[in-house]
Amino acid sequence: MQPEAFSQLFPLFNAANPETLEQLLSAATQYDCPPGRTVLMEDSWGNAVYFLASGWVKVRRQVGDDYVTLAVLSRGDFFGEMAILDESPRSTDVTALSTVELVSIPAQLFIQTLFKDSQLHHRMLQLMVKRLRLTNIRFQLSHKASAIKLANTLLAMAEAYGTQVGNQVEIFNIPPSDLAAVADVSKHDVVKLMAKLEQKAWIRTDPDTNALFLTNLSPLKQLLKQS
Cα 71 from chain centroid? Predict the structure, then answer.
């Protein structure tokens, strides 16, 4: 991958200088993961940072004998940085929801580069603060109706990872159990609400491509304003 294409694909590197990008790419590894494969294991030590060139993954934590999905990430995002920044075992694992194309950069090189390139360092802080703000919004909505929390999650996914297809926005059709965990609603409510949204023609699904299309964003945004 060329430095210019790399910086365009990953917002983290928008402000990085060309020398930084060339150095990182020279040590980067690209590979694919099939759906269902665990990319990172909980409690393993961080030896790389991973960047999503395509596909969808879920970040989850083990709770007892089960797993709880904390976030869903897609093209242009990254993960694995926390374990190398605080030099501790990973507290979550990451599993592919679809076929995923990844770019990994060795941890030591990534840390060294952050110290050398102040623009990259600043940009990473900005993106981590953005994640915290999204978490704060979810917390603020924790006592709201399930429909409001689900609308917030769908709109956030569309804004962060959606692909414009005509007047629709396409995202991955996230499994109900994972969507429920991320939205902080019950799986039963997710199934019921998604069926209602499809009846209203606000969304539609394509089982053949496992895609979800947000066909009418306005009422979803209006619903969110009720919060």
Answer: 6
Using CA atoms of 175, 144, 203, 159 in order, give the dihedral in degrees to the nearest 10.
-80
Secondary structure of residue 77 in the 3-state scheme:
coil
Q: Is the dihedral of CA 148, 154, 155, 156 positive or negative?
A: positive
The CA distance from 171 to 182, in Å, is: 15
- Which stretches within 141-216 are classed as H helix? 146-161, 176-183, 187-199
How many CB atoms neighbour CB 56 within 10 A? 24
The angle subtended at Cα 164 by Cα 163 and Cα 165, nearest 5°, is: 110
51, 27 Cβ separation under 8 angstroms: no
Return mean pLDDT, the chain: 90
Cα–Cα distance measured from residue 190 to residue 185, given in angstroms and rounded to the nearest whole number: 7
Contacts of 5 (CB under 8 A, 6+ apart): none
Question: What three-state secondary structure class fits 122?
Answer: helix
Hey, what domains does the chain have and what are their CATH numbers?
3-138 (2.60.120.10), 144-225 (1.10.10.10)
**Residue 82: Cβ within 10 Å count:** 14
Provide the sign of the torsion angle of the four alpha carbons 141, 146, 152, 153, taken in this order. Answer: positive
User: What is the C-alpha R_g of the chain?
Assistant: 18
pLDDT digits (tens, 9 = 90+) for 142-184: 899 999 999 999 999 999 999 999 999 999 999 999 999 999 9
